């Protein structure tokens, strides 16, 4: 599955590492996202070399996404909220690999909301993933007002790949986030567990 994440990054990184145009805008007007179309094509070529087609990748992701992914206590009881835990985010990325979205703050906000949703006890993974997709779709729709056709297509592709990566790789991150956010009655050591301060604790989100 880590290989799948790397393939997703091959396409996503060139897009989200783009630079904003130098053109000036009115204070109330959004600056467009300057998508590197050549970088997008190079990324797609790399992806195709590893898979028979782009549809193959999404087929694998959809199959993984259909698997049930939930968090329950060992005794079968419903976990309860850890009063010492505060939901947090580590930005866009997973398994210690971060995607540079500094030039696309709208995408960073979507990732932050998704991380916090995973990191809140009792939230269902599917609900978090659905909200993430909606956030990404809304981002592209908002930016489309100032994007060219090619740039808008690049935004849509990035959105799809970000969501695909979450569907294919998010279960482990979700369960680990829920373990930090929740308490199971049999886990007495969790009752007095203090919040984890190290950012490394979120390396798998």
UniProtKB/TrEMBL annotation:
It holds the Pfam family PLA2G12. Keywords: Secreted, Signal. GO terms for biological process: arachidonate secretion; lipid catabolic process; phospholipid metabolic process. One of its GO terms (cellular component) is extracellular region. Residues 1-18 form the signal peptide. The keyword Mitochondrion does not apply. InterPro entries: PLA2_histidine, PLA2G12, PLipase_A2_dom_sf. It is found in: Secreted. GO terms for molecular function: calcium ion binding; phospholipase A2 activity. Gene3D superfamilies: Phospholipase A2 domain (1.20.90.10). This is Group XIIA secretory phospholipase A2-like. It comes from Branchiostoma floridae (Florida lancelet). The lineage of its organism: Eukaryota, Metazoa, Chordata, Cephalochordata, Leptocardii.
């Amino acid at each position: 599955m880590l290989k799948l994440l790397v393939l997703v990054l091959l396409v996503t990184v060139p897009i989200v590492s783009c630079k904003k145009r130098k053109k000036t805008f009115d204070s109330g007007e959004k600056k467009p996202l300057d998508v590197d179309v050549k970088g997008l094509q190079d990324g797609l070529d790399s992806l195709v070399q590893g898979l028979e087609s782009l549809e193959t990748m999404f087929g694998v992701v959809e199959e993984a996404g259909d698997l049930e992914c939930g968090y329950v206590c060992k005794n079968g009881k419903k976990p309860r909220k850890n009063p010492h835990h505060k939901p947090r985010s580590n930005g866009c990325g997973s398994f210690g690999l971060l995607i540079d979205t500094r030039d696309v703050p709208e995408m960073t906000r979507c990732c932050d909301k998704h991380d916090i949703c995973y990191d809140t006890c009792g939230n269902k993974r599917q609900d978090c993933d659905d909200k993430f997709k909606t956030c990404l779709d809304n981002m592209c729709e908002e930016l489309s007002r100032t994007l060219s056709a090619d740039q808008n297509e690049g935004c849509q592709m990035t959105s799809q790949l970000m969501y695909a990566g979450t569907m294919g790789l998010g279960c482990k991150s979700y369960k680990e986030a829920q373990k930090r956010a929740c308490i199971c009655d049999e886990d007495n050591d969790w009752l007095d567990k203090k919040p984890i301060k190290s950012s490394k604790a979120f390396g798998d989100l």
